[in-house]
Design goal:
Elements (H helix, E strand, L loop, with lengths): L1 E2 L2 E8 L19 E5 L4 H12 L9 E4 L32 E4 L7
Parallel strand pairs: 2-5
Antiparallel strand pairs: 1-2, 2-3, 4-5
C-alpha cells in the first residue's frame, strides 16, 4: 500500500533472543500493518514498529529484515534510498511478505 511518501507494510518479529531456541517463527501470525515514511530513516521509525509489535528485543538490538529474501535493511537509510533491496518485495501478492524485526546476525547490521 503506497500513499505519497507513505508505504504500508505488514510487520512481524522473530523472537531470536534465545540463541538455543531453534523453533522460531515470525509473530504475530496475523501481522499488523505499519505505515513507513519513505523519506525518513528507518532508525527513526523502528521504535514505532517495536512498540506496535511488543517485540521482546531491546530496541538497540533490533534491525529490519525482508522476509522474501533475508536482506537486512540499512537503518540509517530511508526506504526510498533502498529501492534495489526492496526489488521483488510484495510483487507476489499470493505470498505473505513482511518486514521482520529481529536481532541482526553476528551482531551487525
Amino acid at each position: 500500500i503506497v500513499k505519497g511518501d507513505d508505504v504500508g507494510e505488514e510487520v512481524q518479529f522473530l523472537d531470536d533472543t534465545d540463541p538455543f531456541n531453534s523453533t522460531n517463527f515470525p509473530e504475530p501470525t496475523r501481522p499488523p500493518l505499519y505505515t513507513f515514511r519513505e523519506d525518513i530513516a528507518l532508525i527513526t521509525q523502528l521504535s514505532g514498529v517495536h512498540r506496535l509489535l511488543r517485540a521482546p528485543h531491546k530496541l538497540d538490538d533490533c534491525t529490519l529484515q525482508l522476509s522474501h529474501n533475508g536482506t537486512y535493511l540499512d537503518l540509517e537509510s530511508t526506504l526510498a534510498e533502498q529501492r534495489d533491496e526492496l526489488e521483488g518485495f510484495q510483487e507476489d501478492r499470493e505470498r505473505r511478505e513482511s518486514l521482520c524485526c529481529k536481532t541482526p546476525c553476528n551482531g551487525t547490521y
